[in-house]
Amino acid sequence: MLDAFSSSFLVFAYLAAALFHLAIALGAPLAAYVHGENSNGQLRLSRRALSFGFFLTFIAIVGHYLAQLGLFTPILDAGGNAVVNWVLVGIATVQAFIANTSRNLKHKKLWSGPTVAMLLAAVIVAV
Question: Which of 122, 74, 119 lies closest to 93 in space, CA to CA?
Answer without folding.
Answer: 119
